[in-house]
Amino acid sequence: MKMISVCVKTCASLLLLFLLAPAAVVAEEVYQVGFAKVDITPDYPVRLNGFGFRREESEGVSQSVFARAMAISQTDAPPLVIVAVDSLGVRLPQVDRIAEQLKQSHGLPRENFALTFSHSHCAPKVNGASDNIFSQAIPPAHQKHLDTYSEEIIGLIVQAAAKAIDSRQPATLHRSTGTVGFAKNRRPMGGPTDHDLPTLIARDPNTQTVRGVYVSYACHCVTLRFNKISGDWAGYAAEGIERQFPDSIALVSIGAGSDQNPIDMSVDDVSIAQRQGAEIASEVKRLAETKALPISGPLSAQLQRIALPLNPLPSREQFAELAEKNSNVAVRYNATTQLAKLDRGESLLTEIDYPIQTFLFGDSLCMSFLAGEVCVDYSIRLKSEIDSKRYWLNTYSNDFCSYIPSERLVGEGGYGGGAEVPYFALPTTLAAGLEQRIVDEVHRQVPDEFVIPEGVQGVAPKSPKDALQSMRTHDDLEIELVAAEPLVRDPVAIDFGADGSLWVAQMSDYGRGVYEKFEHHGQVRRLSDTTGDGQFDKAVTFVDGLRFPTDVKVWRDGLLICDAPDILLARDTDGDGVADSVDKLFSGFEIVNAQARVNSLRWGIDNWIYGSCGLFGGKILSHKTGQTHNIVGRDFRMNPDTGEIQAVAGRTQQGRSQNDWGDWFGCTNSSLLLHYASDARYDSRNALVSLPTPAGLSGGAETRRLFPPEELVQFALSGASGNATAACGLDIYRDNQLGEEYLNNAFTCEPVNQLVHRSVLQPTGIDYQVSRGENETESEFLTSTDRWFRPVQARTGPDGSLWVVDMYRYVIEHSRWIPQATLAELDVYAGQSMGRIYRVRPKSNQPAAPASEASPAPFDLTGKSDLQLATLLKSSNGTVRDLAHQMLFWNSPSDSVADQLRAIVAEAPLAASRIHAIALLSAWQTLDAPTLLVALANTHDEVVRHGIHFAEPMLDDDAALRDAVIRHAAHASPRVRRQVAWSLGELQNAAAIPALTALASKSETDRYVRAAAISSLNPNNVSSMLAAYVALPTAQQQPESLQQILRTAIRLGDAEAIDGSASQVLPAIANEAASANRLLIELLDSADARIGNATIAWTPELKLTVQQAHRRAIETLDPTALALLGRYRGAATAQLLMSADEPSVGEELSIANVLDAISERVSARYAAPLQVAAINALAKTRHPDAAELMLERYREVSASAQTAILDNLIARNDWSLTLLDTIAEGDLRANILDADRRGKLLSHADETIRQRAKSALEMAGSPSRAAIIDTFQASLKLASDVDRGRAVFRKQCSACHRVEEHGFVVGPDLTALTNRDPQWMLSAILDPNREVDARYVSWSALSEDGRVVSGLVVEENAAMIRLRESGGKEHELLRDSIEQLRASDRSLMPEGLEKDMTPQDVSDLIAYVIHSIGTPAPMAADQPLPRQAHQIAPFLLDESQPIQRRQQAIDQRPGMGPAILNLLAVDLRADDLATQYKRIPWIWRVALAIGRRSDDGELRDALASSLPSSDQPLLDWQAVVIGGGLINGLTQIGQWPSDRIAAILDADPTLAPRWQQTLAMSAAMADDDAVKKGTRYDALRIVALDDPEKAIPHLKRYLGADVDGELQMGAVSGLADIDAPQIGALLIESLPGLTPRNRQLAIEGLLRTPNRRDALESAFAKNAKLLTAEEAKQLAQP
């Protein structure tokens, strides 16, 4: 590749080179590598080793055997030499002889030579190797041949090694690991296997020809058993590889395979061995054709011998007995040989001199060589402790001494576990402990960088170089390493400095609790290139001690830093490179979620800095202005200089970015991409109208699917791979360096899925169409198989590359969502000192430039003049343009620069450049009309759009400019037309009216443009707009627009002009069309709301028209007529319906007559829709008689009309009481109310209604939800019927759910459910409030007219909110008409469905729902452990489940504790102790688990759900949660509960008043004899956290010997939790009177601090009887 930086393209021939030359395109290291192959087949018969049954010398040669050698070196250093010999094994003295000869001939150090054996059982025996294999003496003739061969093989091996050393030539080395599956564990009891095939391939660096291969496989070489010489499968593998790669030499050796055999074996069927060899050769060929890891780095070797002790030797007598009496011939023969040694005066072996050797290839590969027949346990263990991707274990190396069992095999015994020692001529077995000795020495030789850290599940981190090799992108792109540890650590965000530096936010404390108190290590570092060679070589910590920094942004001479709850400005005022001034600019951003905090500060093209609210935002204090702004749940823009901050459209979690046109995009963890197509500045101008919110994005499900690598780090609560669960770090790529097809594409990081996802964006009017890249239909832009790869931010670099920030952590998910058992095995901070930054750039096809030519000029804008910066606005790179724009914004304008900017507006080839120039001129207040006219004449839609926006301040004063803008009302682009509609609303000049009128009419086809025109209505233009609109031909009038214009004219226009505005629509309301009534209703409603009690001099024509319309309505009584009549009459309506000249008019149109007329339609004689319309009309009059009229007609109308009556009655508080009174008096039955409506009344916000409902509906004494579920358990055992269930569903559920094209979409999509558990479904149906999904919480709104509506919030914007209730009915409310909006703590799904269904109905319904989901699940009790809170809560209460399984359900689902608690306690009441205490055992277990986990978020949420609300009593279950669960759990893990809870209260002050109230109530509960003693214990634990001056005397009262044991325990445990000096003496004094269990607790409390321990030791020294012997031992322990 061409080793130069990519230049940032500009006009005016300015060449801007970026700071970084490629650092991560790893050059393949070239070694000197030689291979040799020497035939070691004897030409005479010889005894073959391996099988003891052989008695004769070999009977020919089936396959020649060889010594194959490989020598690898660098420069003139001695090589590393490996020889693989086709032999069962060679002894250490012989290997030493070989090494010594090579030292003499080639200067080869001993440690640089390794000999490995293929362990073929058909190869000639060598002296010393398993000398007792035949269990009899070898005949002298046979021994003579063995002696000859044993000498010959030494020379032949030396020859092979020497040839390899002498034949070294340049070569590259690559390592990969394949899989071969023909081995099995051969032990009788079975065991593990290792099917890895580590492979090293040497290639010619120029031709890429394979010159040699080295492989090893963990399997005994015993496929063949005949008496012919053969290399067995290993020999055939070598032959096969050499055939695959002509002129290559293949070395094959054995891994840890002493207990592994081939699955297929034979006496003489050579084809089996050939097939096995071919399997290896085929896998090697596959590996050679795939990308492998390059080997690089310096070579080194170590060799150490350790002693492996044998067990105590048998005595001579024991040997004699074994030789004479043992039934095993091998044992007898071995004993005989040992006795012979003793007879010769020789000492028997007491230990094995065991060689362990290591070859190192830099940090890219580590090879260990172990002697003997090593079992597979060693391989599995070492590869779990050492990075298996870079570690290679060779066994059967350097000495064929014995079997090397693991401790497991030593314990199991048998062959391979000790029974084989006779064959090796050993006097006894190896002593226990050998495994650890061997492993310790291996670890001593292996460098630390290869060792896998603890707590990462055996997955080792990779070096930056190796991590890079794990990454994949498109073939025409390459990935380069920009920076890595130690320059950066824990990077989460970057920004590009004007001087070429890189600013990095480092969140080192990620994983800590959000409320946890700890020393903060978060930093901002500045990376720089001090040598000018294009490489970052210096890192300076600019700011230290940050908590969780999430972003950085260069600003003037300082740096903006996001560190919730603050945005900081850090400056270096003394020039030492370290910030000495750190000021808070804004405070108040939410901190509740570690993964959702303020972030993404980005320069906007409109001269503001934009930011992400992190989902939550907050009430933000500007320290400069002293003002607090409501930015809750909305993104923002700010001006750091002035302290201004404003809410903007969008709600981003982590990653907000703009494209070249100033369109903003964001993401959330579960949404890869969002587009914020509206503009809050305009949308909020007219609060009287409801504006549609653009969809923003469109695209199929395939655009949201992810294609991650196969292996991910996932836990029980992790989302499914392939779905976005951690989307973050969004960037819009703003350059064409990667290719034109990437320009303005979105790139979203997904660290859990180890990828960066690309979204192609195509504008479609106001919105964008999303698609996948053509080359990414089933792949991703960037992925990595490195399971530590955690991309968290993407940025367009000033060099045109896409920069990717890799936090590089093993655990990226917050600990709250990891099961406790798993968490205990994890290091959640693994990788804390690591981190990488990469960039993706085009691959160069040119050769690398010489180093002297490849060093680019540093990227440095600090010395640029304003004219030069202005030129940079023409760069194709959006980051460069933004930075130049920013720097010019900071500077004072000059005429010459302003002129250059005007020239850019006129002439720049890039539209984006023109927009930047316009924005800067506007910021400098030097933007003039001629420049804007040039922009408005541009052919690019976006230049025109922004020109219109920036022209707004001049439009009133400049007619030419105004006319130019107005002409664009007919522009082809709806984006331009929408901007015209928005901007014309800023005018005071009436010239805008015709264009606005047209844009609001039917001639405008885009609804969003029409909405923009309506948003422009204001008191200054609305009257004129109304006049112009009604002057349009009727066919051009859009009825909805006309109504909105009329509403605004009356509500916002001058009071004196109300009659005039109303009169303008006289022709439209005078006809008999339905639209006339709708417009009249708008007129009257608006007039009533506008004038209050004022009297208006209405024109006679208007009064007559209104009266005639009402007369027609009384006559026709069609739906629109009913809507007109059925209105609440305000002052305006009353005045218009009265006539001073004709008093009869008032009587004729009186409300009484109208009620009578409407009531006539409330009859079964009319169609149901008309009945409903009449009922709604009655209700809207708000007349006191309307409720009685509806109730009187209830039995006379259709079912849908009855439903309308009930809904209207329930919608008003006074009418709800009337309805309940009617039911209580028996005039109507309670069962007319279905579960939904009962629920609304029983959970009503008004206490009087709730109590009346309980009484009238006989619910006060109703069974709890748990009891109801118990009652319906039998339904799960009934035979169910899907067809019957369908009927039940359509009757009971279709009002809120749609299945099989039947019903309404209000609640969740049941067909998308993944949980088919019938038990869960039963709970969900009968106890819907057990867990309330926030998406389906019921909201209740009280409108200014006294109407109450409720439902789900399905849409909201700055002006309106839309609620949807059951039946799909929707209510759209303008925000300024809402008196109160209240979220229920209950689901929209009602309780009480059991009143309308039998157990058989429920059984059938569940069967139908499961059928609708897919394959039915059996209704068996034996289900897997539940995974979600709504499943776990009922599972815990299921007494048929074993306690252990229920506890497992709690332990395996961390983070869900508070949700489970909420579900267990949702319906518990103070007067229902029986239900409380039925659930308390499991409430306690859940709370205890939360306490033991000590997660900030869980603790906070648990406190929030269990602390009594203001003025509410402390219930028993709440005391159990707080005292027996949270406090107790914190104590059990050694924390001080007072400190932990104080930290939570500090972070969330809203809990503090409830906590203080709880402390006071717990003191009373602890002393209340009516409370159960166990709960009083819990209360005492709470008391302990009060002020010690209050708590200690209180608890002390319960220490007496006559106090109940449980209460005494509460006092002891509580006192132990108080970190006060007097506690030690108090506990010591109480010891004699405590129960045994409480004594133990007291002593544990005394040993909790050094001071208490000292006090106890002192007291014990004075009184030896104070402690028992066991207690004294406990004290003596350190």
Structure explained in plain terms:
It contains 58 helices and 54 strands. With 1678 residues, it is of the alpha+beta class. The relative contact order is 0.04. Strands 3, 4, 5, 6, 7, 9, 10, 11 and 13 form a nine-stranded mixed β-sheet that branches. Strands 20, 39, 40, 41, 42, 43 and 44 form a seven-stranded mixed β-sheet that branches. The chain has a six-stranded antiparallel β-sheet with strand order 26-27-28-29-32-33, with no helix packed on it. Strand 9 and strand 10 form a beta hairpin. Helix 21 crosses helix 22, helix 25 packs parallel to helix 28 and helix 34 runs antiparallel to helix 35.
How would you summarize the topology of this molecule?
Layout (H helix, E strand, L loop, with lengths): L6 E2 L7 E2 L12 E10 L26 E8 L6 E6 L6 H15 L6 E5 L22 H27 L2 E11 L3 E3 L10 E8 L6 E8 L14 H13 L4 E6 L5 E3 L7 H19 L4 E2 L4 E11 L6 H10 L3 H15 L7 E11 L3 E6 L2 E2 L1 H10 L5 E4 L8 E2 L2 H6 L21 H12 L18 H6 L1 E2 L4 E8 L6 E6 L5 E5 L15 E7 L9 E9 L4 E5 L2 E6 L2 E6 L9 E9 L9 E5 L5 E4 L5 E5 L5 E3 L5 E4 L4 E4 L9 E2 L5 E5 L2 E6 L3 H4 L13 E2 L29 E5 L13 E5 L4 E10 L2 E5 L10 E3 L6 E6 L5 E5 L13 H5 L11 E7 L8 H4 L11 H7 L5 H13 L4 H13 L3 H13 L5 H8 L4 H11 L7 H9 L6 H11 L8 H7 L7 H9 L6 H9 L8 H14 L5 H7 L1 H5 L3 H18 L8 H17 L2 H7 L5 H6 L6 H6 L2 H10 ...
Parallel strand pairs: 5-6, 10-11, 16-18, 17-19, 39-43
Antiparallel strand pairs: 1-2, 3-4, 3-7, 4-5, 7-9, 7-13, 8-12, 9-10, 14-15, 15-16, 20-44, 21-47, 22-23, 23-24, 24-25, 26-27, 27-28, 28-29, 29-32, 30-31, 31-34, 32-33, 34-35, 36-37, 37-38, 40-41, 41-42, 42-43, 42-44, 45-46, 46-47, 48-49, 50-51, 50-54, 51-52, 52-53
